[in-house]
């Protein structure tokens, strides 16, 4: 789109929105005619047409053929973000996902949340796919059962048993992805207007997902030992949240792991306030030694454990899971049939099952942890040279949550009004580097002095060149 | 993997399994050291390492870092109940799905909504999977782009153009399934308390899905030429629905196809009342000749077209799509990232793309249509002998919507209080035959005199025996 025209269209849209907000244009009332409003605004009629069309697309106004445009009475369609494409898109909780997922091959992604493709166990995946090609007709052609592959659920049940979580295969539901696991739980437990607790900072997509559920999001400040338990207790008493969503091991974005005391306190408070907790255990494979789990201490009474295989096996073979109370799983099965007609592709679950059972898998994970430990140290050193300092040194995983150099810490120093990290991310994006600015993770918008780095995505020196240039501006 | 080495690994695994089965290696006991066992078995230590790793992946043994491998504490619980659908479950819009999806191999499913596995193009699917095993790392390991495979979207755009629907690849969004396509649209357009129109009868899962969105469902009586246009117009005026969900070709459950006049009238009324329509085109491949489409007449202005590949390619390879206005697609992309972190597995989309492009595909579809026409005639004849009569003879597809024999038509005749078809279905389920009773399709619950049959699932004479016995009761 032409930038100038885009700006003018935006001005016309804003003018209409202001009239509606101010009450000079009431629901059901006809909008000014295109010609008249074009003259009034000093723009071309085509600009007004486009503005009206876009407002109609947002549901703010409605078009009645042959009769013109009218202010809507009801709610607009659910737009999670303003739909500006590509580079000038607002930096919101969807920004990193959209920029990273749709980036071209020439774009570097130190802000993304996955390993480079050549770090993944592709040989084992290829073996699993070749085995799949020899499977029977039923596996290749049919819908699977409603809970998903029994063999994969049995394998997960055995893994959980090793971690002290006693969940039979019937208590496990395979889902289309880890995100879909959380989404299904939200559908099951939440009503619009409910309150949900998340960590501040937390994985940005928790916020995007919760917005889609039209719930109120309350953040609990996150410390190096996990969520602040005093503020957690206060938030429970004050906001009566229905749900708390967290990572217990290798928290995203900080890489921290809650202490045993924190885990115990969280569960005690949750019991006192009848709070349900979703424990997203997606980074479990990256831990050098297992850490305490909410689900293990709680025994899947009020904790729901979810996870997926996207981080250490394949993100292309979509498959997640839920482990929860049997009666909840039964209800979640119905909900998944109604809204998706099942969970993951049965063929995807089969590839996951075969690859997890591949003799090479344990060694792959060990090598991966060593490689990440090395990359973590090297990246921390190189970022340090640029004045970027890790908030803490994680025990595992691929994230480093780093504070910006002095002068960028506050909201408006260093010539960057507003959000320092967001401005750095915007500048880097023009140089084809996707960063993850702190505030996309922060409900309270208090992380403008932070960036999250993925140490596995920082081998290319251009990352550091672009960072240095953006910082020096 | 080296074939000989693979065999040796298997021998080592078998040796351990024999020791455990014979009791010479008890649960919790340490396994022989790798070096010792390699000598004993006359294999290399690496073969033993691989055997132990695979047994650990199977859960037969456990690894304790720094200490070796130990026999697991007995076999994991075998949850036989997980394959067994609950017989006493209430007959609601989810009943047919749950009973069909979780049915054991000994259950016949004339009520289900899919073809038998051996009617599907499995050879082409196997070729596509073998090709996938040779794909690059990025396809096997990475999340895909947010809209899904560009090549598959281009192929769909070309198909749509053939049908007179002008939609660029950017107007197409791949989804995890056809159901997820509708679900995403509902999330985008609906608020709790909104009203949605469906056909009466309609695909039962539309009702289950809409219940999950907490909207009011209003049914429009369905005639042999499509929805009753007079009652459709009345419903629009009276209920102001936000959305109408329908199949335009080979309607589920009746197999009817709306007339061109009906299609035109629906669109005229929709325009007058600013109604959005979801056209679920999942049975398109079964049409002998294309019929008029809402999306083609409307040009994707207020019609959203959705579909999937589950009926003619594979239901195991989950992939659906949405074609809609560009601005709506942009918002739907955000919503899909937030709630599922993307659409179908990229590997699933790749298998679909390859299989659709397989030289055999067109011939497969032609043969399938002929085979279904034959099965339709034969099934109608055999049902007729039992007093079950098709409401109409569909042009294609696998459904026959049949009225029950005289004496079962009303609500409480023939000794069946309440719902005659539901009672037949319940009786048949005890004989391991899943039927689809009329009222699971009917918002107004006025179809107790009907059953929907799937002519492709009725080759086994037991279906007719069980039907005859249930009717004679």
From TrEMBL, chains A, B:
Keywords: DNA-binding, Pyridoxal phosphate, Transcription, Transcription regulation. This is DNA-binding transcriptional MocR family regulator. PROSITE patterns: HTH_GNTR (PS50949). Coiled coil: none annotated. InterPro entries: Aminotransferase_I/II_large, HTH_trans_reg/aminotransferase, PyrdxlP-dep_Trfase, PyrdxlP-dep_Trfase_major, Tscrpt_reg_HTH_GntR, WH-like_DNA-bd_sf, WH_DNA-bd_sf. The lineage of its organism: Bacteria, Pseudomonadati, Pseudomonadota, Alphaproteobacteria, Rhodospirillales. In the C-terminal section; belongs to the class-I pyridoxal-phosphate-dependent aminotransferase family. PANTHER family: HTH-TYPE TRANSCRIPTIONAL REGULATORY PROTEIN GABR, TRANSCRIPTIONAL REGULATORY PROTEIN. Residues 6-74 form the HTH gntR-type domain.
């Amino acid at each position: 789109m032409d930038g100038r025209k885009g700006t003018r269209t935006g001005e016309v849209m804003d003018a209409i929105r202001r009239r509606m907000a101010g009450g000079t244009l009431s629901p059901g009332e006809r909008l000014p005619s295109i010609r008249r409003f074009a003259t009034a605004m000093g723009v071309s009629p085509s600009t007004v047409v486009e503005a009206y069309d876009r407002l109609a697309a947002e549901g703010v106004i409605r078009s009645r053929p042959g009769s013109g445009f009218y202010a809507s009475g009801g709610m607009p369609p659910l737009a999670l973000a303003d739909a500006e494409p590509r580079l000038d898109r607002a930096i919101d909780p969807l920004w990193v996902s959209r920029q990273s997922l749709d980036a071209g091959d020439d774009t570097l992604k130190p802000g993304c949340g996955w390993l480079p493709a050549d770090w993944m166990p592709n040989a084992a995946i290829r073996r699993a796919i070749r085995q799949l090609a020899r499977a029977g007709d039923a596996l290749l052609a049919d819908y699977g059962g409603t809970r998903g592959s029994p063999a994969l659920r049995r394998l997960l049940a055995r893994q959980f048993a090793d971690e002290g979580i006693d969940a039979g295969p019937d208590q496990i539901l395979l889902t289309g992805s880890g995100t879909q696991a959380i989404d299904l739980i939200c559908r099951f437990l939440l009503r619009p207007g409910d309150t949900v607790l998340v960590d501040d900072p937390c994985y940005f997509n928790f916020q995007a997902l919760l917005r889609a559920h039209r719930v109120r999001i309350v953040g609990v400040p996150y410390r190096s030992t996990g969520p602040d338990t005093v503020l957690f207790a206060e938030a429970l008493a004050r906001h009566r949240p229905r749900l708390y969503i967290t990572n217990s091991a290798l928290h995203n974005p900080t890489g921290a792991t809650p202490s045993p005391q924190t885990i115990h306190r969280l569960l005690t408070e949750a019991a006192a306030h009848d709070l349900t907790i979703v424990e997203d255990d997606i980074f479990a494979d990256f831990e050098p030694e297992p850490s305490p789990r909410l689900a293990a201490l709680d025994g899947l009474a009020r904790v729901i454990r979810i996870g997926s295989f996207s981080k250490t096996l394949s993100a292309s073979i979509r498959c997640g899971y839920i482990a929860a109370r049997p009666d909840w799983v039964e209800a979640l099965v119905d909900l998944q049939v109604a809204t998706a007609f099942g969970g993951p592709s049965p063929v995807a679950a089969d590839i996951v099952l075969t690859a997890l059972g591949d003799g090479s898998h344990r060694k792959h994970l060990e090598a991966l942890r060593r490689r990440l430990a090395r990359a973590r140290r090297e990246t921390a050193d190189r970022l340090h040279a640029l004045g970027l300092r890790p908030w803490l040194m994680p025990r595992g995983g691929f994230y480093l949550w780093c504070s910006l150099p002095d002068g960028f810490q506050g909201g408006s120093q260093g010539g960057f009004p507003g959000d320092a990290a967001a401005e750095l991310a915007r500048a880097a994006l023009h140089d084809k580097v996707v960063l993850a600015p702190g505030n996309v993770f922060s409900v309270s918008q208090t992380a403008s002095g932070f960036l999250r780095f993925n140490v596995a995505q920082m081998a290319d020196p251009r990352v550091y060149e672009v960072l240095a240039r953006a910082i020096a501006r």
